[in-house]
Write a structure and sequence with these properties.
The protein has 166 residues and is an alpha+beta fold. The chain is globular. The chain has one helix and nine strands; from the N terminus they run H-E-E-E-E-E-E-E-E-E. The strands form two sheets. Strands 2, 4, 7, 8 and 9 form a five-stranded mixed β-sheet that branches. The chain has a four-stranded antiparallel β-sheet with strand order 1-3-6-5, with no helix packed on it. The protein folds into two domains: 2-31; 40-158, Immunoglobulins (Immunoglobulin-like). The protein has one helix spanning 2-26, and strands at residues 48-54, 58-60, 67-75, 87-91, 98-102, 113-121, 130-141, 145-148, 153-158.
Length: 166
């Protein structure tokens, strides 16, 4: 008696799944999420305007100080592009400089922007050591590469002789 009941339950689950799948396929286009993100070729400089800015260009490597990086994508008329995927990365030159990039969303918002907060833990005995890091933004193209967004920005990171997290 247990096996027929289990079979019936699985048939009901499968039927519910099929009904839900068919309902999604038959849904009007107005309910579908708009595809506003440009293709990789659309992000070429002639068709779109892109920029990358930093809130400041000097960061203390104490994990508390931060810099906000903002990447912006506008169309040829200067209107924001909503939904474009943009990734912001930061790379330190000094291997002791541990940069962390926190980017809550990789899709441009209603202003055509994505933001990331950059922090550093750069603990060394000599507190006057500087690292010259680079911050860049890009739009991924499938598996074949990326399109740069804006011009990479230089970020000076000042070391600290106090261990991070204290």
């Amino acid at each position: 008696m247990y096996a027929p009941r289990r079979f019936l339950i699985w048939r009901l689950v499968l039927a519910a799944f099929l009904v839900a799948a068919l309902a999604l396929l038959a849904a009007p286009a107005s309910f579908a999420a708009p595809s506003l993100a440009p293709s990789a070729s659309d992000l070429s400089p002639g068709r779109f305007q892109t920029s990358l800015t930093l809130s400041k260009h000097r960061l203390f490597g104490n994990e508390r100080d931060s810099v906000v990086a903002t990447a912006t994508v506008l169309d040829s008329q200067g209107q924001p592009v909503v939904g474009a995927v943009v990734i912001i990365k930061a790379r330190a030159r000094n291997p002791l400089d541990m940069l962390r990039v926190d980017q809550p969303s990789d899709r441009t918002d209603q202003n055509g922007q994505v933001q990331a907060t950059i922090r550093s833990c750069f603990f060394v005995p000599d507190p006057s050591l500087l690292d010259h890091a680079m911050v860049a933004a890009f739009h991924p193209i499938d598996s074949s590469g990326v399109v740069p967004v804006g011009t990479p920005q230089s970020l000076v990171v000042v070391s600290t002789n106090i261990p991070c997290g204290r």
